[in-house]
Design a protein that fits this description.
The chain starts with a helix and ends in a 5-residue tail after the last helix. The protein is built from four helices and no strands. With 87 residues, it is mainly alpha-helical. It is rod-shaped, with a radius of gyration of 20 Å. 71% of the residues lie in helices and 0% in strands. α2 (41-52) runs antiparallel to α3 (56-67).
């Protein structure tokens, strides 16, 4: 194998390690409804109902009104609920 061939193999291996690390870290950093802001059971049930009814904006408004969550965190939380990533 030519000298540059080993370089290409090394680049592929490094890329693979970076991608696997990124995927693992991304899966472990899951937002939950019980994050920094306290979410009671009634609010949680309403958020799940709104998300299942495809009313994400209303779910975000509900979270922000009842918990004082920032907009970005409310959006991330609703997105996590809609993709089934909550605990």
């Amino acid at each position: 194998m030519p000298t540059w061939g080993w370089f290409v193999v090394a680049l592929v291996v490094v890329d693979l390690v970076v991608i696997v690390t990124w995927v693992v870290l991304r899966r472990t950093a899951k937002p939950t409804l019980a994050s920094a802001h306290a979410v009671d059971a009634a609010t949680q049930d309403e958020v799940f109902a709104l998300v299942s009814a495809r009313k994400k904006v209303e779910a975000m408004k509900l979270l922000r009104d009842r918990t004082g969550m920032p907009l970005r965190q409310a959006k991330d939380t609703v997105d996590a609920v809609s993709s089934g990533r909550t605990q």
